[in-house]
C-alpha cells in the first residue's frame, strides 16, 4: 500500500477523524445488518483504527484484527484502541494487503474503508481477502469510482502510485475472486459502499 506524506499528515489529523466519523455515520448503518453475529473481522488498512473501533462498538461480541503497512498508523491505531478500552477485542498490527499473513478461511468478515485505491494491485488485494474469508464471509468496501470522483486524480497529481478503478471494474474483480455482491450504494462525489459474500 502506498500513501504520500501529505495524505499521511491528513489521515493523522483531527479533521480527518471528524470527517471520517460523519462518513461512517452516513454509510455504515446501511451495511451493518449484513455482518454475521459476533463476527471475527479483518480490517485491511486500519489507519488510525477508526473503522475497527466504530464497528466494534456496534457489533456485539465482535473481535477484530486491524492491519496497516504504515508503522506510524499502526502506533496511532494502538493508542486510539487503548483510549476506547477495546484492546481485548481489537488487535492491531502491521500487515500487507497484497500478502495477508493469515491462514485460509480465518475470518467471518473483512473491511476496507477508502483503502483499495492506495493499493497498486487492488485485484490481488481482493483475492487475498477472499482467501482469508470463510465461505459465506462478507467483504465490506467503501471507496471511489474513478469516473465519478476527482479524489483519485488528485492523488495521482501528488505523485503517489494508486489503483484506479470504476465500480464496474471493482465488481468484476470481486466476481473473479469468488464474491457475490449483495448491496452497492452510491453516496455522491464518486464514493460507493458495497458488501459482497464469498461463495
Order of helix and strand elements from N to C terminus: HHEHEHEEHEHHEE
The CATH class turns out to be: Alpha Beta
How is the main sheet built? Answer: 7 strands, mixed
What is the overall pLDDT average?
A: 89
Strand content: 25-35%
Describe this structure as you would to a colleague.
This protein has 199 residues and is α/β, with parallel strands linked by helices. The protein has helices spanning 5-11, 14-27, 50-56, 71-83, 122-132, 151-157, 167-176; strands at 40-44, 63-68, 90-94, 107-113, 133-144, 179-186, 191-198. The protein has one domain: Rossmann fold, CATH 3.40.50. 35% of the residues lie in helices and 26% in strands. The chain has a seven-stranded mixed beta sheet, sandwiched between helices. Strand 4, helix 5 and strand 5 (133-144) form a beta-alpha-beta unit. The longest helix is centred in the first third of the chain and has 14 residues, at 14-27. The chain is globular, with a radius of gyration of 15 Å. The protein starts with a helix and ends with a strand.
Please tag this protein with its features:
single chain; alpha/beta; Rossmann fold; 35% helix; globular
Amino acid at each position: 500500500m502506498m500513501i504520500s506524506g501529505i495524505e499521511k499528515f491528513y489521515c493523522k489529523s483531527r479533521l480527518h477523524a471528524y470527517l471520517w466519523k460523519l462518513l461512517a455515520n452516513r454509510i455504515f448503518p446501511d451495511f451493518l445488518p449484513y455482518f454475521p453475529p459476533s463476527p471475527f473481522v479483518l480490517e485491511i488498512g486500519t489507519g488510525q483504527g477508526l473503522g475497527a473501533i466504530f464497528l466494534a462498538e456496534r457489533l456485539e461480541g465482535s473481535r477484530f484484527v486491524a492491519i496497516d503497512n504504515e508503522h506510524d498508523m499502526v502506533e496511532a491505531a494502538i493508542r486510539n484502541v487503548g483510549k476506547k478500552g477495546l484492546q481485548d477485542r481489537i488487535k492491531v498490527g502491521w500487515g500487507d494487503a497484497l500478502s495477508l499473513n493469515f491462514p485460509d478461511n480465518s475470518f467471518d468478515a473483512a473491511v476496507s474503508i477508502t483503502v483499495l485505491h492506495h493499493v497498486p494491485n487492488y485485484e490481488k488485494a481482493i483475492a487475498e481477502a477472499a482467501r482469508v474469508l470463510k465461505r459465506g464471509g462478507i467483504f465490506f468496501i467503501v471507496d471511489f469510482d474513478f469516473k465519478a470522483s476527482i479524489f483519485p486524480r488528485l492523488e495521482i497529481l501528488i505523485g503517489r502510485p494508486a489503483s484506479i478503478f470504476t465500480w464496474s471494474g471493482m465488481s468484476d474483480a470481486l466476481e473473479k475472486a469468488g464474491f457475490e455482491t449483495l448491496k452497492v450504494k452510491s453516496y455522491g462525489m464518486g464514493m460507493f459502499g458495497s458488501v459482497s459474500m464469498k461463495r
